Amino acid sequence: MTTATQTNADLFARAQAAIPGGVNSPVRAFRSVGGTPRFLVSARGPYVTDAEGREYVDLVAGWGPAILGHAHPEVIAAVQEAAARGLSFGASTPVETELAELIEQRVAPIEKLRLVSTGTEATMSAIRLARGFTGRDLLVKFSGHYHGHSDGLLAEAGSGLATFALPGSAGVPAEVAALTLVVPYNDLDALRAVFAEHGDRIAAVITEAAAANMGVVPPLPGFNRALVELAHAHGALVISDEVLTGFRVSKAGWWGLEAETDAAYTPDLVTFGKVVGGGMPVAALGGRAEIMERLAPLGPVYQAGTLSGNPVAVTAGVTTLRLADDAVYARLDEVAALLQREVSAALAAEGVAHVVQTAGNLFSFLFGDAVAGGARDYAGVLAQESWRYPPFFHAMLEAGVSLPPSVFEAWFVTVAHDDAAVSRILDALPAAARAAAS
Ligand code: PLP
């Protein structure tokens, strides 16, 4: 049991003795910003509270899921009711179909959907399915894109691997890594070259629908569409990874933002996580029925999970998606735009060269003159003065604002960021911008 008298430092020391690096997911360790991670004990609306009783305005939002803010009363009530009926049945439940139907209604390319527990499982299963469907082995991914931590997906990945400057992971057999071809993002010529050389062996291209694990790097207009056309011309599938963007940037994810434009595209498979679980472990893969029906028990591609479609977790997801109406997305956009503007003004006032990169309501900042034109790929992102972020981060934390502890992560707003929470962020900005300037 934790008590309010324990300090973050004490808790971290104890955690480090029991858990590798003191954390259960690497970026939480504050390695790239330094200092002691905050051990959180509760969260409500736009705020999180640490073990020392300090409250922070939260711009991490559980790394994305909490679009409604933390502990939304209707979500909590639904989860409590579901929990009281039983935690896990290992059998089908009505609420799983409800979640699948909700997603299928919103994202047209999805005709069938399977629930899993994490984004990693969703992308891993989507790749196996693409290989099973095409009878091919090679996978193409983009450098700086993160799709979870399965073996074939860690090559030049973003998120924690970008934070720690790791090219990949030990423990991945060379034979497995060799099946993944890595291409610079937003570079159709490079993609064409890879297809020209290996086209008949490529099962799928996996792409973040809009990249947000190397900081935010949106696809160039028409990139997703051209990518689908190119892949299809070679008999390959496209897996659009919306684990992070899905139901966060719009009611129909990134796909929804482009669906009504000239850039409209139809991926073969789409992966979801984060918001679809409303803060509980739910993720999904979906797509064309013809492909999805290759999954067991209908087809030969095996995929399973004791906790898949867990009734308590799925209830959190369904309730969250039902509450996420147009007004919610309008408010997320409004808060995101306001913060972009105000952070930018504060940095400019201190003479800190920077660029705001956005993808819907997701955003992050690149620091330094070298990136004045913005970044369209991982090499562009790495050219920034990333050392300006840790002092900025710590000045914000000191003032009671919790930002992602890495310059290579997006900032996440919630609909619970009301005027009071936003003013606390704005009040913290001048000192943080000064820290970034020095
Ligand atoms: N895909 C994307 C785009 C992600 O952002 C993430 C996690 O951040 C994943 C996949 C992996 O999801 P999980 O951490 O739930 O395994």
Strand percentage: 5-15%
Q: What is the level 1 CATH name of the largest domain?
A: Alpha Beta
Oligomeric form of this entry? single chain
So how many helices?
15
Question: What's the shape?
Answer: globular
Q: Whole-number radius of gyration?
A: 21 Å
Q: Pick out the low-confidence regions.
A: none
CATH topology of the largest domain: Aspartate Aminotransferase, domain 2
Based on secondary structure, the structural category is alpha/beta
Question: CATH-wise, what's the superfamily of the largest domain?
Answer: Type I PLP-dependent aspartate aminotransferase-like (Major domain)
List the helices and strands and how they pair.
Blueprint: H1 8-18, E1 40-44, E2 47-50, E3 55-58, H2 73-84, H3 94-106, E4 112-116, H4 119-134, E5 138-142, H5 160-163, H6 174-177, E6 180-183, H7 188-198, E7 202-208, H8 223-233, E8 237-242, H9 253-259, E9 269-272, E10 283-287, H10 289-292, H11 311-323, H12 326-349, E11 354-359, E12 362-367, H13 378-382, H14 389-398, E13 401-402, H15 419-437
Helix pairs in contact: 2-11, 3-11, 7-8, 12-15, 14-15
The protein binds pyridoxal-5'-phosphate.
